[in-house]
Amino acid sequence: MSTLTATRPTAEIDDRRSHALVHARIMLRRNLRHLLRYPSLTVMVTMMPVVFLLLFVYVFGGTLGSGLGSGTPVGMHGGRSAYVAYVTPGIILMAVAAAAQGTAIAVAQDMTEGIIARFRTMAVARSSVLTGHVVGATVQTVIGVAVVTGVAIAVGFRPHANAADWLAAFGVILLLTFAVTWLCVGLGLSAKSVETASNSPMFLTLLPFLGSGFVPTASLPTGMRWFAEYQPFTPVTETLRGLLTGTKIGDNLVVTLAWCVGVAAVSCVWSRRLYEREPKPS
Amino acid sequence: MNTSTRDDAAAISARGLYKAFGEKTVLDGIDLTVQQGTILALLGPNGAGKTTAVHLLTTYLRPDAGEVRVAGWDAAKHPQAVRRAIGVTGQFSAVDGYLTGRENLMLMADLHLLPKRVGRAKAAELLERFELGEAGDKPASTYSGGMKRKLDLAMTLVGDPKVIFLDEPTTGLDPRSRRTMWDIIRGLVASGTTLLLTTQYLEEADQLADRVAVLDGGRIVAEGTPAELKARIPGGHIELSFADRARLEAAASLLDPTGRDDDGLTLQLPGDARVSTLWPLLRRLNDASIEVEALTVHTPDLDDVFFALTGRKGA
C-alpha cells in the first residue's frame, strides 16, 4: 500500500500550476493535427470571405465606390479601387467571424467525441482542452486573414500603412479573434447539437454588413444606423480602416479594446463554466 | 483517516453512494469494496446503474451523497490524485477518430508526461500486444468496433494505472475478440492491477471475477464470490422433453414435477447429475413405457442466481 499513499497531498496543487501549460500545448497539437488532417472546414471558412471580397469588389464595387461620399478613403476618387480600400477591413472582420464559426462547430463536434470523457477521468489540467481550441482557432484565423488580405492586395488594395500600423492592425485582429473565438467556444459548448453550433454564430458574419464594413453608416436608415453605430464591429472596422488606409480613428481604438476585452473575459468565464459543469449522463 | 468501518487498504471503496438525475434515482446507496489485485464484477441488466456507478467511482460524475476512496485517496477532496491512479475504459469508445492508433497512444503518453522516447516505445509495444500493429498508422475512425475497443483499453494502459475500470468491456465484441479481451484482463490482474468491470454477461463475471456484486434498480442485491452466490440458490434440476402432449401428461402424472411447460413439452424435476438420481428416474419412465426425447441436467449458474435474486431472467 505504501506506493498508493506515498504521494504528498499537496502534489495536486503543484500539478495544477506546472502541468496546465504542458497539457495545453499537447491539446493544441491535437487540434492543429485535426486542422491539417481534415482541412475542409478551414478551406470553407477561408474561402467564404474571399468569395464575398470578389463579389463586392467586382460586382457591386464600381457603383458602391462612387457612392461612398464622406467615407471615400483618403486620396481616392470613388469607383472600384476606392471600394477595395473601403471594404477590405470589413472583409477581414468577416474572415475572423467565419473562422470563429468554424471553431464553434469544431468544439461542438469535439464534445461529442468519447475522448473528451476520457480526459475528464485523467489527471489533465481542466483548462487545457479549451485553451487548445482557442489557440488552434487563432492560428486558423490568422491564416484565413492572411489569405484574404493577400487576395485583397491582388485585386488592388493598396494600404497606406507603415510597419507600426501593420503591427497595430495585427494586434487589433488578434484581440478581436481572441474575443470572438472564446464567444464561439461558449456557443459550441452550449449547443445541443453540431447543427445548432454551426447556426448560432451566424450573426457574427452578418455584423460587418450591419455596421460600417460595406457601406458608411451615414447611408443607412435611422434605426439601422443607430444599431450600426453602437454595435462592436463598427469601432473595430473603423480602427482597422484607420490603421490600414489612414482614415480618422478617434476614440474607436479605445472602444474596440473595451469591447474585445469585455467579450473575451465574459465568454472565457462562461465557456469554462460550461466545460466544468457536470456532463450529462449517457 | 482511520475509522473502524472503513477498509483503508482496499483499492476501491464506496460507502452509501447515491445519485439521482432529476427525479430519477439511479443509485440508491451502494457500498462496494475491491481489494488490491482482485477483480470485482458489477453485474446487472441494462439500466441497473452500472455505468453511473463507474462514473462516480472514476470522478466523472460527483455523487449526491456517499463517499468514494480509490487508491487511498478521497475522490471528493483529491480528484486529481484519484485520476492519476486510475485508468478508465468507458462503454463508448473514447478514442480520437481523427488521429491514428499510434497517435492516440502517444497523446496519452504525452498527457502522462512520459518522455518522448518512452512514449514511442510504449505505443509500439501496446499496438503489438493488442494486435493493432498493422492498423497502427491508420486513423482510428476507420477501425472496427473490436479494434476501437482494443485501442481504447490500450490507451487506458499507457499510464500504468493501479486501478482499472472497464465498463462493459466485451459488449458488442465477437466471441474471438471477447476471448482475447478476457486474456488481457486476466493478464492485468496477474500483474497486480485492481480491476472493476461491469457486465451483463453472467458467464463473464463467472469467468473473470474474484467477487461479484449484483446491481439491480440502483441497489446491490447480492455480493460474494461466484461460488458463494451459486451456493445461495437451491440445487439444479433435471429437464425432460417429450415428443407430444400425451407423453408429457403421462410422465407428469407418474412423476412429481416442480415445473412444466406445455408449449415446450418439458417437465422440470428436482435432482442433479448423480447416477443414483438419474437411474431410478429412467427406470420408472421405462417401466411405464413413456418415451423421453431428451434429458438435460441443469447445474446452477449465475443466471439462476440472478433470477433468484431479482425475480427476472438475466441477459
Description:
- With 282 residues, chain A is mostly helical.
- Chain A has one domain.
- Chain A is built from 12 helices and no strands.
- The model of chain A is unreliable at 1-14 (pLDDT under 50).
- The longest helix of chain B is centred in the middle third of the chain and has 16 residues, at 175-190.
- Chain B has 11 helices and 14 strands.
- A 6-stranded mixed sheet of chain B has the order 6-7-8-3-9-10, sandwiched between helices. Chain B has a 4-stranded antiparallel sheet with strand order 2-1-4-5, with helices on one face. In chain B, strands 12-13-11-14 form a 4-stranded antiparallel sheet, covered by helices on one side.
- Chain B has helices at residues 50-57, 79-85, 101-111, 116-129, 145-157, 175-190, 202-208, 226-231, 245-254, 275-287, 302-310, and strands at 12-21, 24-34, 39-43, 65-70, 73-74, 86-89, 163-167, 194-199, 211-216, 219-224, 237-241, 259-261, 266-270, 294-298.
- With 315 residues, chain B is of the alpha/beta class.
- In chain B, helix 3 crosses helix 4.
- Chains A and B meet through helix 1, helix 2 and helix 5 of A and helix 1, helix 2 and helix 3 of B.
Radius of gyration of chain A: 21 Å
Q: Please, how many helices of chain A?
A: 12
What order do the helices and strands of chain A follow? Answer: HHHHHHHHHHHH
The quaternary state of the protein chains shown equals heterodimer
